[in-house]
Amino acid sequence: MYASHEDIGYDFGDDSKIGTKPVKPNPNIDRGWAWMIVFSSFLVHILIMGSQMALGILNIEWLEEFNQSRGLTAWVSSLSMGITLIVGPFIGLFIGMCGCRRTAIMGGMLNSLGWILSSYASDVHYLFLTFGVTAGIGSGMVYLPAVVMVGQYFQKRRALAQGLSTTGTGFGAFLMTALMKYLCVEFGWRNTMFIQGAISLNLCVCGALMRPLSPKDAVSEKYVLRSNTEDNHAKVLSHSAETIKSRGVLSEELEKKGTVNEEVLDSVKPIEMGSKSQSERSLYGLRILKTVSQMMVTVRKGFAIWYSSYFGAASLFTNRVFVAFIIWALFAYSSFVIPFIHLPEIVKQYNLPSQNNIFPLTSIIAIVHIFGKVILGIISDLPCISTWNVFLMANFTLVTCILTLPLMQTYVSLAVVCALIGFSSGYFSLMPVVTEDLVGTKHLANAYGIIICANGVSALFGPPFAGWIYDITHKYDFSFYISGLLYMVGIIFLLIQPCIQKKQTREKPAEGAEE
Predict the structure, then answer these.
(1) CA 205, 95, 334, 40 torsion: positive or negative?
(2) What is the tally of structural domains in the chain?
(3) CA distances to 163, 363, 500, 509, 510 from 513, in Å
(4) How far is it, in rounded angstroms, from Cα 239 to Cα 69?
(5) Separation in Å, CA 414 to CA 90, 173, 194, 343
(6) Can you count the helices (H) and strands (E) in the chain?
(7) Which residues neighbour 279 within 8 Å (Cβ) at sequence distance 6 or greater?
(8) What is the pLDDT of residue 266?
(9) Nearest CA to 150 among 30, 305, 302, 306?
């Protein structure tokens, strides 16, 4: 999706000879270190997406601590979730300039800083900046490289690798929900966020595992050419310096043999040292200029790739089905996020905390979500099954669960609906496949970036909207009804636009025949 210069192992400042050298297939494609990349991405999904799915625990603590409205407090979680996805296309600029490894390591440090600073929050608005924005941007800087690196290391088994890595979301939601609940009881929410900040430093380790995919032969050739280039620069810089260096070498040999007078050597050494330092300074200055020029070229090319990827894809919006897909994405993700944020408080209102403490409803969603991704992916790969139809059926099941969830007031009924929500939401693993069917392989990266942005907007405004509706009606029922109806509108767009497009394609040949 984003091929950085660090990742492919080329240096724009070197001669063009480097780029023209034949590159042998990397032995780590689909094997070897590629599975360490999957493991790294799996951990990233646990630490980022899993933690975000467990924010409902902290949301209750924030409501009690700051005594603010539910709509205002929900903005903290929504900012973190939304910004993680919204900044995705813009993180591509960092990936193009710095590479996936450096971007992920910087993001891990920023995410950890956001958690730690949030533990000192004095009000909700403070959390907006520290947790929503700071930790959210840090999460985005790690999340996107984790997805990109899996795509770079896999060709034949790319779908399997992406599926395995994204199951970390479900595992993370289950583990982080239990961990945060325990930490909040034992240490309080402030210490919980501080501890979580320390845990998030493991994202830097995950980033360090994202070893750039560079052919060994190309790398060795690059260093040989680079050393030759530097030698040529040295020769052109100062012929006198080389002469003095050669004299220095010769004098050292004569000194070893004992054939040179010590007084002569003492008179030559100061001149020799001064010439060496002058030449070294000149070489050092050339290296600095070369590094700066390479950085400028890298920034320009990285920005050009980023700009063409996201602002040069206007032709995508002429595809009406893809536009309908964007409208669907604007409403879909919030319907999945809202239960995670507000379910703990709904359980509290229904006086079911004792049962929910044994096995939290959010954990049920997370566990079944793992199996949903795998099973829906297997079904979609069957030759007699259409991926588009599986995708639509999963969406219909999810919207039905969202609309019926407020009607359930017992733990068992809520658990059944939550299990269906977790299973049907496994359609997330089908989104890249559906996007590729709509726009083709050539525009897949650009189109999927836009879809992720739309999901981020949905995650950003969904939970605060549900909290705002509660503040007006004092019930969560209308929040689920309204979000479910909006979700249904998006699904209807997905159903109508393909029919219209098929009708138009049939009419065009008929018009040509009449003419």
Answers:
(1) negative
(2) 2
(3) 47, 59, 21, 6, 5
(4) 76
(5) 39, 18, 32, 10
(6) 24, 0
(7) 234, 237, 238, 241, 244, 245
(8) 52
(9) 30
The answer to whether residue 514 is domain-embedded is no
- Count CB-CB contacts under 10 A for residue 311: 10
Task: Look up the pTM and report it.
Answer: 0.65
Q: Are 464 and 428 in contact (CB under 8 A)?
A: no
> 20-40 b/e with 16+ CB inside 10 Å = b?
eeeeeebebbbeebbbebbeb
> What string of DSSP letters covers 425-466?
GGGGGGHHHHHHHHH-STTHHHHHHHHHHHHHHHHHHHHHHH
**Residues 319 and 194 grouped into a single domain:** no
Same domain, 489 and 377: yes
Q: Which residue range is the domain that position 133 belongs to?
A: 28-211
CA dihedral (290, 295, 301, 305) in degrees, to 10, reads 160
207 lies in some domain:
yes
Is 323 a domain residue? yes
CATH number of the domain residue 85 falls in = 1.20.1250.20
Point out the domain boundary residue: 178, 211, 244. Answer: 211
Instruction: List, run by run, the mean pLDDT of 10-residue segments along the chain (515 residues).
Output: 37 38 61 86 90 85 85 83 81 77 92 93 90 91 83 72 79 86 91 93 92 55 40 42 42 45 49 61 74 73 61 64 85 75 75 73 82 81 82 91 86 89 85 75 66 81 76 77 85 78 59 52
Residue 217 lies in a domain: no
Residues 66 and 183 placed together within one structural domain of the fold: yes
Q: What is the amino acid identity at position 142? A: V
Contact 57, 184 (CB under 8 A): yes
> Cα–Cα distances in Å, from 99 out to 45, 187, 299?
19, 38, 12
Choose one of 163, 196, 211: the last residue of a domain: 211
Cβ-contact 310, 26 below 8 angstroms: no
